[in-house]
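Extended Data, panel c. Modelled sequence:
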Amino acid sequence: MLASISPLELSALLANTPPIDQIGTLERIARIQARSIKGAAKLQGLRMALSMIDLTTLEGKDTPAKVRQLCYKAQHLHDQAADLPIVAAVCVYPTMVGVAKQALGNSGIKVASVSTAFPSGQAPFEVKKLDTLYALDNGADEIDMVISRGRFLAGDYQFVYDEIAAIKALCGAARLKVIFETGELDSLDQVRKISDLAIAAGADFIKTSTGKIQPAATFPVVLTMLGAIKDHYDKTGQMIGMKPAGGISSSKLALQHLLLVKEVLGEAWLSNEWYRFGASSLANDLLMQYQKQLTGKYQSAAYFSID
C-alpha cells in the first residue's frame, strides 16, 4: 500500500479535529427526542426509512436459500400494502454476493458486501484485499469495510488511512462504506477523529458499527459523525453518506435519526443515496407502524415475514 498523504499532512489534518462537547451533544439529542411526528409526516417518514434500509444477514449459518429469501423480502416487503418502496440494498458476506446479485436481478436494489476480515478486521492487508476483490468480482455494488481498530487505538493513524485509501482504490464504481465499530472506541473525540480520517481517505459513507458489538449506533455517536460530514461539506461542497447500524430496531428510533439528519445536514441527505440504516429487524417494525397509520389498527408480528 502506498500512502497518498504524508505523515506530516495527516498529523495536520487530525490536529484540526475539533473536540466534542459531550454535554452540548446530549442536550441537542434530548431536544430531538422530545419531538413528536404524527399523521402524514409520520407516514412519509416511515416510507423514507423503509427505502433507506440495507437489509442484512451476516451470520455463519447463512445459506444460499436464506439469502434468496432475504432478497425476496427486499423486493416484497409486505404484499398486502400497496405501493411500498423497496429497500436500498441487501448486505451479505462476500461468498453470498453472487447469490444475492442473481436473486435481485433488475430490481434496482444494490448488493452490499462486508469485507476486510469483517467483523474484527484482524487480518493481513493482502487477505483484506482478496476479500474485497472477491466481493467486487462477484458483482458487489457497495463495499462495507471495517477499519483496523487496534491500529487506530494504538495511534497508528497513517496505517488506517492508507488501508482505507487502498480499499477505496480497488472499489472502482462501487461505493465504499467505512465501519468504525464505535463501541470499541474510547470517546466521542475518537469517533470524530476517525470520521475525519476516513473521509479524507476516500470514504463514500461512514458507518457506526458491525452490529456485533454494543453499544453501536447511539445518538451521541451518530451526531458526532454527522458533524464531521457537515464540516467536510461546508469546506469542500462534497457530500458524504452516513450509515448507522446496530441497535436501531424500532420505528421511533429510526424517525428520530431522520430528524437528526434533517437538523444537522438538511433535506439533501434524506434519501437512500446518502443515508442508510444497517438493519435486519427494523423493517418489520416500520411495516407494522405503517399499517397502523393506514388502518388505525396494530397488526401482529406474525403477519410479516422474518426474512
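The longest strand covers residues 110-115. This feature is highlighted in the accompanying rendering.
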